[in-house]
Fold this sequence. Notes:
The structure holds 2 protein chains of 2 kinds. By secondary structure, chain A is of the alpha/beta class. Chain A has 8 helices and 14 strands. Chain A is elongated, with a radius of gyration of 46 Å. Chain A binds chain B through residues 18-21, 23, 26-27, 29-30, 33-34, and chain B through 70, 88-89, 91-92, 94-95, 98-99, 102-104, 207-208.
Amino acid sequence: MQSLGRATRPHQPPLRRDPAPSRWSYRMQRLWLTPLFRIGFHVGLPVLLLAGVVGLVLMNEGRREAIAGGIAQIKEQFQSRPEFRVNMMAVEGASSDLADAVRAKLAVKLPVSSFKLDLDQMRDRAQELDAVASAELRVRSGGVLQVLITEREPALVWRDEAGLTLIDATGHRVAGLAERADRADLPLVAGQGADNAAPEALALIEAAGPLTHRLRGLVRVGERRWDLVLDRDQRILLPADRPVQALERLLALDQAEDLTSRDLAAIDLRNAARPVLRLAPFALTEARRARGLAAPTKTENDL
Amino acid sequence: MTDLYQSQRAMRALRRTAMQRGVVAILDVGTSKIACLVLRFDGFESQADSEGVGPMAGQSTFRVIGAATTRSRGVRFGEIAVMNETERAIRTAVQAAQKMANVRVDHVIACFSGAEPRSYGLAGELDLLDSVVTEQDVARVMAACDVPPLGDGREVLHAQPVNFALDHRTGLGDPRGQIGNRLACDLHLLSVDASVVQNLLYCINRCDLELAGIASSAYVSGISSLVEDEQELGAACVDMGGGSTGISIFMKKHMIFSDAVRMGGDHVTSDISKGLQVPLVVAERIKTKHGGVHATGMDDREMIEMGGDSGDWEKDRRQVSRTELIGIMRPRVEEILEEVRARLDAAGFDSLPSQQIVLTGGASQIPGLDGLASRILGQRVRMGRPLRVQGLPQAATGPAFSGAVGLCLFAAHPQDEWWDFDIPMERYPARSLKRAFRWFKDNW
């Protein structure tokens, strides 16, 4: 006996499938063959989806903050690693007073991460100090912040209404000065605008040569020209332009005629063609008497 | 008539847009198979610079990039009988061809073989107003042809100017610019059943495609299977299809006559099926594998297994000799050829200078057909295969594809038809803006 279910022949050919595509599959295939649609599907749709997901995630305020906080925390963790920590500040090339001033000015709280140091800004701050000509900052290995300071060299003492000031060769203020005697080695300049003409003053002092031991200082007149003040209240009035040459000429004259050692109140070199001498009052009367003129009881002084 | 004129012009406009897009599909709706080819047009500049021997028949301007064929369903005698089935078959073919070409096609040029084509030779003549023939004169002389009554529900499929004559000179291809007094024109007009065209149009529209041209398959298979001198000197092309056999006579590169016999290879198959009591599928297989029209002594000994699935051993193990098979096939083939002979005689093929006959189409592949055909149709019979076109797959180079290949050539180089010419000015409505525009154009 055989079960009826087995009666069907196993190799019966299946019904012929209709090879025709359905209307919708036909239309779908045509749609897929449309270039614009394909580009839109392969490029436009992923972009749209990605933008949508990102937008949805970022729409929530709390989530946005959480993401920002997470990023900040990771950054913080990384920057505070011991490899980047600065433990020490070394100020070099400055006197101890100046070094303390620089430390105070920079006001760096150690230890600090090297990412938090703005070296450019710190250098600018250090250079704000008058005594600092230039500063160079670098973070050395081993967590050392090295500050290389070049100090300003005081070249002149400048006296004005406020008091005494040390200035360097370019005329920049270096420091205040309490007593002239503290820096007796430096020449003295006075008058308004003397600091701006400091290089000229130094050139004049150098040119003064044989008069140096008699030189008391230089006075800037009208922010325009220099007066050379010698002891015995002698003054040499120099012209505004080319004062060094005028001074050299005077020195030549001095060597020949021994001019400055005479009893003169002032030598006026402002007009190069015609140097003018002003005698001291006693010398003037003596000169008149010597010439046989009436002895003046009252001398005229054109000053 | 003007309605058809407008619809044909619309098809021409569609064809132009398809050319601009560069891709057009060819659809041969036959009784036994539906073939779809996808053509890509490369443009015409490549042809312009070639000196000397030009590209043959302009084939180099296009390339077949997709080809598909499917068993036809719902088509009888080359006419659509079951709309849904045919639509599905067309969809199958178009989808496969599109897939191969990897491009979407929107415009399709179709051909069909049925619809009882009838051809008419028309003549018209006209006294020229000016002594120089202008385009308007050509349009006017074609309008002057008196159209015979076509009958109810029939439409013009082709209306091609075949010949122009100016005074006593005849055989002019293009009379424009020539000087004469009297212009005459011969027009070949092919009319078909309107309902068949409507059905085809409907089917193609249902597949989301647009019909950019329509042709008779007898005409297009003539284009592809007749060689150039045959077309020039005069020849007949007999396209033996599945459901109908198309006849077209060519002369001076123009079709001058076309007709169709409503019999074809499917009838041979059904004869075998009836005669041997086998299913149509088996009959078709036996026909293609063992068929023939000349029996020899050898064929008596060649026994053909018919097979079967009835469960009856006696019935399933039947055998038939090849002679018997030939005995069934031959009368039907003879009948078809006799009918073709009758149509050719009616058309006056005897009086043509050249009596060349070319047999093509799927049913012409019966071995020994050329011997039989030369006995019935005349001595000068040859078997024709379609021209070779670029990119055509090997499977689609047989005579069964002469219609499809011819349609490719037709799509690339369409014959000037009546509707390609402008409407003569008198036919415009009196208040038409176009008329005013034309008046300005002509006078300034």
